[in-house]
Amino acid sequence: MRAARIFIEESKELGVFDKIRQVRVDLYGSLAATGIGHGTDTAILLGLEGETPEGVDTDTIKSRVDVIKETKSLTLGSNKISFDPKTNIVFHKESLPQHPNGMRLSTYDAEGDLLSVNEFYSIGGGFVVNEKTRVADNVYYKDARVDHALDPSSVDVSEIHFLNGKSKPQSKKGRPVSPSSPARTAQNFVRAALPFHNAASLLDICEKEKLSIAQVVYKNELQWRSSEEIKKRLLGIWDVMNKSIENGINSTETYLPGLLKVKRRSPALYKQLMANVGQQNGQPVPNLAKSPVLSALSVFAIAVQEENAAMRRVVTAPTNGAAGVVPSVLKCYLTFFSPPNRSLIDQEREYLLTAAAIGMLYKRGASISAAEGCQGEIGVATSMSAAGICAILGGTPQQVENAAEIGMEHSLGLTCDPVNGAVLIPCIERNAIGSVKAVTSAQLALNGDGSHKVSLDNVIETMRQTGLEMSHKYKETSLGGLAINVPVC
């Protein structure tokens, strides 16, 4: 959705938008292999019509897509153009060179002449890049409009650096000017106050500056936006996460969309959880299977993933397929363990900022995409959550790094083999397992002193190598594993 919206906005900036009469979408590699099951085609249709992940009315998605399919037309601004998803969206088995999750968007005028074309890659985390952007860095398109990628009022242009190492001319508003688009700012970034490139350098900064991991990330974020804006955005992220849990456990739907006829379970599981909590009245848990903590972690994670499967709004953390782990661990902590004398807001911020730091390390050193197997989704989410919960439980930076390492070490080699390409089986339950594993990882780290044989940097590099050597059948293509051994109906 984000890539399609950006492409349309760029067409406006190039002055060709009003001439568009045809649009062609080409999906490649794993993005094509699981595109239907993942709802990729639906997201692109909405993006072309100007929607954003943050703003789309999720209750209208199905009806809007049905109209597009029935009328074989798209609405671009005030223009309605011919568009048949069956022929205008083309799925290719082969991958584009830079990344397995590739797409090419093209527009044509009334005579069929090409107006504009661009290639984008979905690399996880809600990020999309084009062929000119290095995958190894941490600033990508995360806004529906590329000219909003940086707020010029908060940027000292003397501190702007570019991925290719070359200087670029500045616009009157202080924004860099790109030959391809006067508003393109995705390929530049403001220098971080405390830059780190791996876990070792992050821990070194924490030691030298006497800061927590969350504080390092916070100081870096201040280079882009004010303290109030950071607080607002973090609270906004948690609000969406929390709502996805609440919406999931309160859903009245019986089945999730798709041919698999998977039932929603979180509403019933939540009722069982509340009944067990009420019966215990502070007494020891009589049955491990009824432990409120284990049950809550699973219920909250499943609730989010059921919302994702139903194309409702979730927070990509680090992917939609793994979006249940980070919120479920924090929700469980806030529900059962948050001290009354500690600010909820402060705990939420510390958790999210710490988790974000770990996510950055994976995105830079390996991947946050199932194109490298589910280790890049659930594995990274588990690692991020383990670090976050370890931090708010009082862990040192060394213990937090240890928790993150444990979370991934025991997720290495995890395959991505969704049945029928849908984010249902095994994805929903895998989020529950990841949540429990995250808490266990933090527990092990907190019971130690932070010293350990395997470093987070070691495990990130191992994950990268494992992903490269893993068969493509187990990397979000639905060509192996459960995807070929579980009948669809």
Automatic annotation (TrEMBL):
Pfam families reported in the protein's UniProt record: SDH_alpha (PF03313), SDH_beta (PF03315)
GO biological process: gluconeogenesis
Domain Serine dehydratase beta chain: 1-132
Superkingdom of the source species: Eukaryota
Cofactor section: [4Fe-4S] cluster
This protein's pathway: Carbohydrate biosynthesis; gluconeogenesis
Keyword Thylakoid: no
MF term (GO), any: L-serine ammonia-lyase activity
Keywords: 4Fe-4S, Gluconeogenesis, Iron, Iron-sulfur, Lyase, Metal-binding
Serine dehydratase-like alpha subunit domain residues: 208-483
PANTHER family: L-SERINE DEHYDRATASE (PTHR30182), L-SERINE DEHYDRATASE 1 (PTHR30182:SF1)
Protein name per its UniProtKB record: L-serine ammonia-lyase
Naturally occurring in which organism (per UniProt): Synchytrium microbalum
Lineage: Eukaryota, Fungi, Fungi incertae sedis, Chytridiomycota, Chytridiomycota incertae sedis
Gene (name only): CHA1
